[in-house]
Design goal:
Blueprint lengths: L1 H7 L10 E2 L1 H10 L6 E3 L14 E2 L9 E2 L3 E5 L6 E8 L13 E5 L10 E5 L3 E4 L2 E4 L8 E2 L10 E3 L7 H10 L5 E3 L4 E6 L3 E2 L10 E2 L2 H10 L6 E5 L3 H12 L7 E5 L6 H11 L3 E4 L1 E2 L8 E5 L2 E6 L3 H20 L9 E5 L12 E9 L5 E5 L16 E5 L11 E6 L5
Parallel strand pairs: 1-20, 6-7, 14-17, 14-18, 15-16, 18-22, 23-25
Antiparallel strand pairs: 2-13, 3-12, 4-11, 5-7, 5-8, 6-10, 9-10, 19-21, 21-22, 23-27, 24-25, 24-26, 26-27
The protein binds adenosine monophosphate and magnesium ion.
Length: 419
């Protein structure tokens, strides 16, 4: 039964072995991650969240006629040129009164008009003498923001699925929509394994290195609003089993488990074996791409686990391609798999034809004409760290790149929209 359910969500292009083309892997991962439940959050915590309701105007916007200028309200087309100022209104005042011909009310920008059938004469167009004004010029515009000009009660203002940005939040605030319904964030556990690893602030002993993946994963997730629970463990099967046991028994609900490291001979099987012991079903155990070829993707009910190869560059690529597809799909993003852009190679690139497509760390920017230009960064192996310094894109190269002269069109994934 569980197996039938599983086969229903397997993509049509699912390979019979668990070695996958990278794009098919992204699609499969997204298919395994239907949108998570929704929750209500305060506006101050809603930045970057996906709206899971349609928000309509509950009243007309603006809700009353208000002045668009600092000036004087008079009867529309009142033929007089001298007026008596009978009141002075500031934004926030509410003093309706019938205005007679020859009368004016001094009014500030944003203040409610005292009557219907008025126009506002900007201050610059009158001469003021105590409580009288003289009109120097009659404006053509009425300088009023009329009730309902912006929206009518019932109009759809924010469609479901919108990603909440500062502007959207400002609108929701003005509507008094103080607790929007948004997709909940996934619960993420990250486990870093490796006997060679020490924390960044520590000096490595002989044979040791500093752990860079913990920070990479933490900040990658935090940038998406997800604070992960993290552990750094030696490569010890018992310790890992102990930590993950509550997942197997269902004592804790974790949507996403990331296990870093343990991708080389032997230890790789150890991640896989422990995932299986915890009730995970292996979906993908390799991708036909580099870096990041030994990737494990497993599922258990609605939760997902990734075994990420420990090399920093492989981590970088796997997070942005595969883990991000899961996060976007869970969030309910309209396109959860990577959206490839087209740019031009900043300089020629010589690559040996390989067996697999490559996701090449790159730096994209704009050329003088405002077109995207992609500069491939120097790297030799997935263990390299230095390309991470400035990489803001992944360049997608086929196994046998056709044209790689400077200026050739290339496919790339921007990791930040501002280069
Ligand atoms: P593994 O996948 O555990 O076989 O690791 C592959 C390579 O990545 C090895 O050279 C590890 O030392 C390195 N590595 C593993 N985990 C980390 C980490 N957290 N930070 C930096 N390098 C790592
Ligand atoms: Mg290791």
């Amino acid at each position: 039964m569980a197996h039938d359910l599983f086969s229903n969500i397997m993509q049509k292009d699912a390979p019979t072995t668990s070695e996958w083309e990278a794009e098919a892997a992204c699609r499969q991962i997204a298919a395994l991650c239907p949108p998570l439940d929704a929750e209500h959050v305060p506006l101050s915590q809603a930045l970057g969240r996906r709206l899971r309701e349609t928000v309509r105007a509950t009243e007309d916007l603006p809700p009353f006629d208000r002045s668009a200028m600092d000036g004087y309200a008079i009867r529309h087309n009142d033929p007089a040129t001298r007026f008596t100022v009978v009141d002075r209104l500031r934004a926030g005042d509410w003093r309706p009164r019938p205005l007679q011909p020859g009368q004016a009310v001094a009014i500030a920008t944003g203040a409610a008009l005292p009557d219907t059938g008025l126009q506002v004469v900007p201050r610059e167009l009158v001469r003021e003498e105590g409580d009288t004004i003289e009109l120097l010029e009659r404006p053509r515009d009425d300088h009023i923001r009329h009730r309902g000009d912006d929206a009518r009660a019932g109009d759809v203002l924010v469609p479901e699925g919108t990603l909440l940005q500062p502007g959207t939040l400002a609108l929701l605030a003005s509507l008094g929509h103080a607790r929007p319904r948004v997709t909940r964030r996934p619960v993420v556990w990250h486990l870093v394994t490796g006997n060679e690893l020490v924390p960044p602030e520590q000096s490595p002993g002989p044979g040791q290195i500093r752990d860079s993946n913990s920070l990479l994963v933490r900040t990658f997730l935090e940038a998406r609003g997800i604070p992960p629970a993290q552990w750094r463990l030696p490569e010890d099967e018992t310790a890992m089993r102990e930590l993950l046991q509550p997942l197997g028994t269902g004592t804790v609900a974790v949507d996403l488990l990331l296990v870093s490291g343990g991708a080389s001979v032997g230890p790789h099987d150890f991640t896989r074996r422990i995932l299986e012991e915890c009730g995970y079903e292996i979906v993908i155990s390799r991708v036909r791409a580099r870096p990041g070829r030994p990737l494990i993707v497993a599922r258990r009910g609605s939760s997902l686990a990734f075994g990420l190869p420990g090399n920093p560059l492989a981590h970088f690529v796997c997070l942005h391609l595969y883990v991000n597809s899961a996060l976007r799909a869970w969030d309910g993003a309209p396109h959860s798999t990577p959206a490839w852009f087209t740019g031009r190679l900043a300089h020629g690139l010589h690559t040996e034809p390989g067996r697999y497509p490559t996701f090449w760390p790159a730096r994209w920017t704009f050329d003088a004409e405002g077109r995207a230009e992609v500069q491939p960064l120097r790297w030799q192996s997935s263990g390299d760290l230095t390309p991470l310094a400035t990489a803001n894109a992944l360049l997608r190269l086929p196994a046998r790149p056709a044209a790689s002269a400077a200026g050739s069109p290339v496919s790339f994934l921007p990791l930040h929209l501002e280069p």
